[in-house]
Amino acid sequence: MSTYAQKKGFGATLWEYLTTVDHKKIAILYLIAGGLFFVLGGLEAMFIRIQLAVPNNDFVSAGLYNEILTMHGTTMIFLAAMPLLFAFMNAIMPLQIGARDVAFPFVNALGFWLFFFGGIFLNLSWFLGGAPDAGWPSYASLSMASEGHGIDFYALGLQISGAGTLMGGINFLVTIINMRAPGMTYMRMPLFTWSTFVASALILFAFPPLTVGLFLLIFDRMFGSNFFDVANGGNTVIWEHLFWIFGHPEVYILVLPAFGIFSEIFATFSRKRLFGYSSMVFATVLIGFLGFMVWAHHMFTTGLGPIANAIFAVATMAIAVPTGIKIFNWLFTMWGGSIKFTTPMLYAVAFIPSFVGGGVTGVMLASAAADYQYHDSYFVVAHFHYVIVGGVVFGLLAATHFYWPKMFGTMLNEALGKITFWLFLIGFHLTFFIQHFLGLMGMPRRIFTFLPNQGLDAGNLISTIGAFFMAIATLILLINIVVTSVKNEKVGNDPWEDGRTLEWAIPSPPPFYNFKQLPLVRGLDPLWIEKMEGKKGMTPAEPLGDIHMPNNSFTPFMISLGLFVAAFGALYREDYNWGILVLIAGMGITLLSMFVRSVKDDHGFHIHKEDLLNDDDKGGKA
Amino acid sequence: MKRLAKWRMISMIAIITLLLSGCGEPFLSTLQPAGEVAKEQFDLMMLSVAIMVGVIIVVTLIFAIVVVKFRRKDDSIPKQVEGSHKLEIIWTVIPIILLLILAVPTVASTFKFADVSEMDKKNEDGKTDVLVINVRASLYWWEFEYPNEEIITSQDLVVPTGQKVYFNLKASDVKHSFWIPAVGGKMDTNTDNVNRFYLQFDEQKANEAGDLFYGKCAELCGPSHALMDFKVKAISPDEFDQWVADMQSVKEPETAETPLAQQGQEVFNNSCIGCHAVTPATGAPEAARLGPNLTNFGERSRIAGVLDHTEEELKNWISDPEAYKPGNKMTNAYNTLTPEELDAVSEYLMNLKVQD
């Protein structure tokens, strides 16, 4: 009930965040942690580009380079992009469907802390003998041969954080299915909610194969099994399949929510409803479905044979169709609209040509026979950075500016935001466009250096220069965040003035119970409908009454901490005698915490009607 | 109308081809194909690029109009349009047609490149009529075994031009990938199984590339993955036959000629021969072939795949391999050589030649 208190000391605030089960605070935790890992992954990217600026460079050594490139990929995918998307899903999705929280607030907190401890565990490898060095897919023959504990950190860290992600996905699914406000039918859900829904379904089906693969790797490396040991009848290609059955849907887990964010932004700043809403929903679902049918296109050169390659080639090409539908729908959302070029809208607009660039090279890569040339060359590096930076990172940056006022109650500086945008856009294309050609000119990926006189010098230098633009852009964004937070000029419900969906009907930031009375949804873009009828806010769907809220809990932190400790035990079990004890102790902490959670009755608390009435100025007028 | 569209397509392909074919070095670039496989892949590339550039042009056009024309001018509320079935159908059907245009040649080429049936046709000697080369990738070097000719070489692959060369590919430690960009796409060397494919080397293009193509490892395999290069000498069939005969003629390790080289041979026999063979015989089991075969070392193009082929670099390499290829298996596999021994063994190795 501490949530009522306004001014709190640092300790109290810290405790609040360690124990919170409020989706909005968990969103902030995801944003901070994901942001930190994003900066870390960005630093690793800079080291990569500095090393490759000139031929025969010795900025970093060969082994260290492999650690950096592995951690860059792993960090950016698992610890930056996904958590940052989770931040916005957590912050916005429940508001968009008119819910007071997610379905399982406790599990939500548990999901965050698992991700966080997994990420920390993985990154501690830097200080404990070296990071993983087998690339982010850690192909089994190399990861089995890798010395030291790097790969162990990878497998255990991802296992822990993956469990958190899986829980988050299930939580979002249940929330969207069960907790929509009266009148919020599936076909009235905003596109961001839809894409969260589909991405969560992908998480539900894609993470188990990764979990299985990682367990096999953990058993092989730490407990003496032989799943990937060819000499003992194992098979390394199985790892490739398990990894990519997860890995390809993972791309859509990342990009679909970004699509959702852009859909909101296009409609908002064009002052027009989304063009072809139902076909957008259909395309999102179809992309999610097809995403599971194409994993072997990552393995065209593995030697699966022409039948498999041909089938997966055609299936992969098919994904271009629903993606194309989306691109044209976005364009025609803007067509005939009244476009305001705010910072989020700039990202959204720039996203279209950038992402189309990544999309068309995706189709080129789908052509299996030609892919034998592209595969594992810099062409692929260029392609997936066009998709993941041009799609996902642009989406995240757009969302940061777009939803910042809703999450923190103050607007990021637009001038600085636009400077960040232009620097990032120029830097992005400068870095990655040339890499298509480097790949076609014969430059393999994941190389720590290259020899002169191969025609690769100029391209690599240009690429490195571009990377610095992006680094500067990121710095300016950080300055923007600091400046904005210090100024802290408060804004109202709908700071962009063109808000269409429910989240803009309540105060920024929303009160901890979100909606004083659940809103009545009368169509797509519910707030827009009310605005057009001259009303100021939503019509309530229920009388004012007591609101049931969950209590804060420290248990999620403890459950995750236990697994974190246990992971060290598993890792050092064969090196030191205390390893097994630590493993048991860690498991003990986790199981004990789970036991406490199970037996302790926690009924939550009620906010009483009278308190809500006194709380009038804090809004939630719906 | 249809003819116009076709003409546009062809001219677009022509323009793009012209623009791209200047890119890169002829011995390395996939954009200067030097063989049937690379050529067909290049054509497929150009077809897909042409289609994709077409898509980009359409999107860019709409994009430009939208961004210029529909900027906010006043506070009016635009008409809320739900969608348009006609447009939806157009941008669903047209991409499907474009993809079909690409899918048909893709599937055809995929099956064509996988056709290695010639490798299974054995004559009465149990050999194939076509040239087969067994490629074995190890950390960080390449072994090339010619099973029909019963010779082995390393690092420098020697092939005849103008005919299909079939490859059996495998790895002996971790997964690698066998790639000669200018001549054709890559295929992985797995630890689990043998992969098979073929390439063809074009004589004229080989001449333009200085008869030496660059080969690369395309799958991350450890610290020196970037340095796991090999070279391909593509020579005329006659020269190739001569080379094979020369290699086959080496039955016993050849005795060095100069006193220094003889001294070097002694050092070699004490320190190196445990891993490096100097006869091309295929008899020894793979597990015993721990390092590159050096039979024709003096005629190779690089030291360790990446260093210039000079005595100076050879000495540098032997005295500290770790400095040039981190993580290699040669480091610490032999006792440190004195400067005199180094001179001698280099002299010996540089004179290991089969083509006199």
Unreliable spans of chain B? none
Q: What composes the largest sheet of chain B?
A: 5 strands, mixed
What would you call the shape of chain B? Answer: elongated
Please give the count of helices of chain B. 9
Provide the structure class of chain A.
mainly alpha
Oligomer: heterodimer
The greatest interface here is: A-B, 89 and 95 residues
Question: How does the major sheet of chain A shape up?
Answer: 2 strands, antiparallel
Give the helix proportion of chain B (percent range). 25-40%
Quick description:
The complex is a heterodimer of chains A (622) and B (356). Chain A is mainly α and 622 residues long. Chain A has helices at 10-19, 23-51, 62-96, 105-124, 140-145, 150-178, 191-222, 236-270, 277-290, 306-318, 320-334, 343-366, 368-374, 378-408, 414-440, 457-487, 526-532, 555-572, 578-599, 609-614, and strands spanning 547-549, 605-607.
Overview of this protein structure:
The complex is a heterodimer of chains A (622) and B (356). Chain A is an all-alpha fold and 622 residues long. Chain A is built from 20 helices and 2 strands. In chain A, strands 1-2 form a two-stranded antiparallel ribbon. In chain A, α3 packs across α14. The longest helix of chain A has 35 residues. The radius of gyration of chain A is 24 Å and the shape is globular. In chain A, 61% of the residues are buried. The N terminus of chain A is likely disordered. In chain B, α1 crosses α2, α2 runs antiparallel to α3 and α6 packs across α9. The model of chain B has no long low-confidence stretch (mean pLDDT 93). Chain B contains 9 helices and 12 strands. Chain B has 356 residues and is of the alpha+beta class. In chain B, strands 3-2-1-5-8 form a 5-stranded mixed beta sheet. A 5-stranded mixed beta sheet of chain B has the order 4-10-9-6-7. In chain B, strands 11-12 form a two-stranded antiparallel ribbon. At the A-B interface, α3, α5, α8, α9 and α10 of A face α2, α3, β7 and β9 of B.
